[in-house]
Design brief:
Elements: E1 4-8, H1 13-23, E2 36-38, E3 41-48, E4 66-67, H2 69-73, H3 75-84, E5 90-98, E6 103-104, E7 117-125, E8 130-134, E9 137-139, E10 145-149, E11 155-159, E12 165-173, H4 177-180, H5 204-211, H6 222-235, H7 240-254, H8 257-271
Antiparallel strand pairs: 1-10, 2-6, 3-4, 3-5, 5-12, 7-10, 7-12, 8-9, 8-11
Helix pairs in contact: 6-7, 7-8
Length: 274
């Protein structure tokens, strides 16, 4: 199953604004900081195994999710979750706030879980300067669009916006997307062409310039160079996997074994096992 849009919903602007105002006072955590190259990603649990806000990470468990105090505080969002999904399959629902200008490190999810998971995003606040990616496809998830994301594939997020992107992210244990949906919508297995971002290819001169960073990379600017490569992913035709491939080439070209070990270990964590 590849990522795709499920449906475009009509949101109640007034009720959503009230929930967003309530969410400003939430206690957030940064448990996903390992996947942020620059900027800030804050999240909080709306539903999870225990119903406690202290449970901040994903894990396998039997049974259905329970609402947390934050989930109960967002009356409209909770109503949406109950109306859109069969919550008996729900394991986690998170309220995720990505600060403007933030970039995710390309990664794969569910590596630490045994069960088959289905992930659904509902953007509540965003604009056309915020992008998501799957492998070498970059696309926009627009406000009110319900999306299924195949988080087992290499994916990333790039914000070139000045304001926070806010999504509800729901994870289900199920055999298929159809099993978890409570609404009847037609199959739409592809990403609509209007959501896909056009990117020019990275030409030989551009690639040579990036690899030339081997002459200056060190422990002080490594993070900035990683961020630069992620920006290239969202603006030119290189894949999320290419980000790590280029970073390894730069590190190897620098002759710095410590930097090559650093990127190799980070790639293992993001893509293979954790």
């Amino acid at each position: 199953m590849r990522s795709h849009r499920i449906a475009a919903l009509t949101l109640d602007d007034e009720r959503l604004a009230a929930d967003l105002a309530v969410s400003e006072g939430f206690a957030y955590n940064d448990s996903y900081a390992d996947f942020v190259s620059t900027g800030l990603l804050r999240s909080t649990m709306l539903w999870n195994r225990s119903g406690s806000l202290e449970e901040a990470s994903l894990g396998d468990y039997e049974g259905s999710a329970r609402p947390t105090p934050h989930g109960e505080a967002l009356t409209y969002v909770s109503e949406l979750i109950g109306r859109l999904f069969r919550t008996e399959y729900l394991k986690y629902a998170r309220f995720m706030r990505l600060a403007g200008g933030s970039l995710y490190v390309p990664h794969r999810d569910f590596l630490e879980l045994k069960a088959d998971m289905v992930r659904v995003h509902l953007p509540l606040q965003t604009d056309d300067n915020v992008y998501a990616s799957e492998e070498n496809t970059v696309f926009r998830m627009r406000r009110g669009e319900l999306w299924c994301l195949d988080a087992t594939r290499t994916h990333s997020v790039g914000s070139f916006s000045e304001r926070d992107r806010v999504h509800i992210v729901c994870d289900f244990t199920a055999d298929s997307l159809r099993q978890v949906l409570a609404l009847d919508v037609p199959d739409e297995p592809d990403i609509p062409a209007g959501n896909i971002a056009e990117r020019p290819p990275l030409d030989d001169a551009g690639r040579k310039a990036l690899l030339g960073l081997a002459d200056v990379v060190d422990e002080h600017n490594y993070q900035e160079i990683q961020t630069l490569l992620i920006k290239q992913h969202f603006t030119t035709g290189i894949s999320g996997d290419d980000v790590f491939a280029l970073l390894k080439e730069i590190a190897a070209g620098s002759g710095r074994d410590d930097l090559l070990n650093r990127v190799t270990a980070h790639e293992e964590y993001c893509m293979v096992s954790r």
